Amino acid sequence: MTETIVVVGGGLAAAHAVETARESGFAGRLVLLGDEHHLPYERPPLSKGFLTGDDELDSVFVHDPQWYDDQDVDLRLGTSVTGVDPAAHTVTAGGETTRYDRLLLATGAEPRRLPMADASGVPVSYLRTIEDSRLLKDRFAAGGRVVVVGAGWIGLEAASAARRAGAEVTVVESLDLPLLRVLGPEVAEVFASLHREHGVDLRLGASITGISPEGSGAAVHLGNGDTVTADLLVVGIGAAPRTGLAEAAGLAVDNGVLVDERLVSSDPDVLVAGDLANAVHPLLGRRLRVEHWDNAIEQGKVAGRNLVGAGEVYDRMPYFFSDQYDLGMEYVGHVTPDDGAEVVLRGDLGTRAFTALWVAGDRVLAGMHANDWDAADRLRALVGRQGDPGLLRDRDVPLGDLVAKVT
Description:
407 residues, FAD/NAD(P)-binding domain, Enolase-like, domain 1, 3 domains, 5-stranded parallel β-sheet, 26% helix, 30% strand, globular
């Protein structure tokens, strides 16, 4: 009997899973169900190159339509999955039930909503889909006024794109610095000064007490008594995993679908990849749910191989990148405030050409560079490794020398 693999999701993890399953020799039936009407696509350009006008829309798609035909993928777009029955090994979508031998859930995440904004009647946008990015691209214009709620990666990239288009931009953030929880105060200050230099009005440590219509735009009322007006409100306050299908199917769920180091869920025939997966990371010794481009690609590949029986462990360190104005950065690893890591900086924060290592004890937990592209491979070689604590903290030791001294 012909085996069937069903993949649910229309993003990077799904596209790379079906590609890798075929490359791994799977000759059975391969079904991909995506609820959007677009071919599977990657999302970083939606807040970067496509949003700024540097990249064409065609650049976001993982494969062209012919590829799916050539690989004999049963591609069903605009098809929402309404149910998964692990006991029966079936997926229901579009009124049709499909039986699977193995299933991959890669439904991703969705923007966290700001109910106050949604209920206010003002023009408010989130950024997740092609349609979202198109809307913002059309609305970002010279003379326009944009208020961005949230100074995380999406919020700051949206602010950068709006300023490039000539809009007046205010960013409202509850923390004292942008990206404070991710980067710590020293590196976070770099991003704060970057946006201020480009004319962004940063309202930090701010609370929003109300949002009301003002003409065709919005008035955002802050806790200190100030009111900021805008033609458009952009909300970027994080994302939540789309766990509804998994919960209804009885899979173990906690901030995503719980999977082991091989991306296998509490049901042995159901794998999970991408933003949805809360996976055991064997090198870090903790669970991680990662919402970044590289993770979706690489977990999709491992899932594709494991769908055909490889049993491969996913142990790649998290990686992400960002482009804002003239600052490009890459980050490898994972660190939380509870890790007690010390930030070791090399280079010049003033010119925004530097590297940072987050070191706890004798281990490098994470590394980042800004505008130092030669450092990327060295950072990847250092993160997760151990070395002499004093040497790791010595800012005068070149990264290349450190790589040779860690284990």
